[in-house]
């Protein structure tokens, strides 16, 4: 379901008298009207990125590497039976020592902790819960995030921008008509994009169990916003 919400915006009409206007309209000597068009589009996600991690503690660095690499190899092998390898991305192994500090500040090496993460892009949300179960059953002991997204984000961005442009045009025509004037050509346009960084629904699940969470994720929505500041000439002829 996709719905547009029209936002209330500041409208300024410059018709030969002094008014407070945005920076884009400073020092304009000709009659003009300024409008801000805006729109919001709510979209159901159609893809997800699952981030899972294996994190272990062992007495030696070699033991950490062996266990972590083994889990990631098993998980990756099972993933390739379900999805193309281009939708799978794994990080490098990270290992660090762990110390115990005594009362006098002395430290004693007690072991090593290591981790690797795997990101999987799911293009069928009906398989989301199965992939969570697969990660945990293969030994990935933490689902660190689920990011909901859109396969064709640009198409939706273009749609919400078009709605913002129409909003600005409609407001400008209404204002000009209200002051018994005729709307002229566009003088300047300034576009404000608020969706350059994808807005994903984020969820953290800490190494417990994979309940059937697919429906709750699919019920979330992604919000896309766009706004444009437009200066129109007023036709005085």
TrEMBL record:
<dbReference type="InterPro" id="IPR007497">
    <property type="entry name" value="SIMPL/DUF541"/>
</dbReference>
<protein>
    <submittedName>
        <fullName>SIMPL domain-containing protein</fullName>
    </submittedName>
</protein>
<keyword id="KW-0732">Signal</keyword>
<dbReference type="Pfam" id="PF04402">
    <property type="entry name" value="SIMPL"/>
</dbReference>
<dbReference type="InterPro" id="IPR052022">
    <property type="entry name" value="26kDa_periplasmic_antigen"/>
</dbReference>
<feature type="signal peptide">
    <location>
        <begin position="1"/>
        <end position="25"/>
    </location>
</feature>
């Amino acid at each position: 379901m996709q719905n547009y919400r029209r936002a209330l915006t500041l409208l300024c009409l410059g018709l030969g008298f002094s008014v407070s206007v945005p920076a884009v309209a400073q020092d304009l000597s000709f009659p003009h009207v300024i409008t801000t068009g805006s729109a919001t589009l709510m979209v159901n996600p159609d893809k997800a990125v699952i981030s899972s991690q294996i994190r272990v503690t062992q007495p030696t660095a070699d033991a950490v590497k062996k266990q972590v690499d083994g889990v990631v190899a098993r998980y990756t092998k099972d993933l390739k039976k379900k999805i193309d390898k281009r939708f799978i991305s794994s990080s490098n192994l990270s290992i660090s020592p762990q110390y115990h500090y005594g009362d006098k500040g002395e430290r004693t090496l007690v072991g090593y902790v290591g981790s690797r993460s795997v990101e999987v892009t799911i293009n069928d949300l009906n398989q989301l819960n199965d992939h969570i179960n697969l990660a945990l059953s293969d030994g990935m002991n933490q689902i660190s995030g689920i990011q909901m997204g859109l396969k064709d984000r640009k198409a939706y961005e273009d749609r919400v921008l078009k709605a913002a442009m129409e909003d600005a045009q409609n407001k400008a025509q209404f204002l000009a008509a209200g002051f018994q004037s005729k709307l002229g050509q566009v003088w300047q346009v300034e576009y404000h994009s608020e969706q350059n960084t994808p807005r994903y629904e984020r969820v953290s699940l800490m190494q417990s169990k994979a309940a059937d969470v697919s429906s709750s994720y699919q019920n979330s929505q992604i919000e896309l916003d766009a706004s444009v500041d437009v200066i129109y000439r007023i036709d005085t002829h």
